[in-house]
Amino acid sequence: MSWTAAELEEHGADLQDALWSAKCLANAPHLTRKVHPDYLEAGANIITSASYQGFSRDEGEALLRRGVHVAQEARRAFVEGDTRGRSAPPVLVAASVGSYGAYLGDGSEYSGDYGKSVTKEALNSFHRRRLQVLADAGPDLIAFETIPNKLEAQDGVNAASGDPIAECAAVAESCERVAAVGVNCTAPRLIHGLILSIKKVVTSKPIVVYPSYNAETKEWVVRPLAFVTY
Question: Taking the model in full, what pTM does it have?
Fold first, then answer.
């Protein structure tokens, strides 16, 4: 599975912006078009759109669609040139969706603290239109990333909000349309224990793990080769 922002930085993109990887969709779409083939050629069979964080409603909807379409174009070009033909594994496009905290831009995507005024109904309303736009663009999957609390892991046991990770995973396990469940933006030393906790309740779906970025040193905790050999 691809992680778009990491490779965008390798291509020289400046992601020090509230919009993060979505900034490239508006200002440098050519970089996004370069990133997807990199992952496909490296063996990834899922590529994600650069739509984790977005814009105002009017411009955001167009860019949400663009993110999916750019990934679809990259898949089409890769498949047409793939010499393996029918023996090649399928390539899927996942539309990336960030949390309500990512929209707020106040760090609450990492704490899970949205305040008492944010209800389940409010979160449903927030996500509904974005999901409709993304679904209409035709991705194979929708990837909900960095969802920090059970309503919408800090110590190796709980989600950032304090909700037990097993309870959060059980919510995903109970949903027939959820294809996989996982952990991201978490210290590597906690990952093994979190996977074991998730495995206790998630028995029918794959478990996904993303790399972690050190916001203080502004670098990945380990280099790409270390992930390959893990």
Answer: 0.78
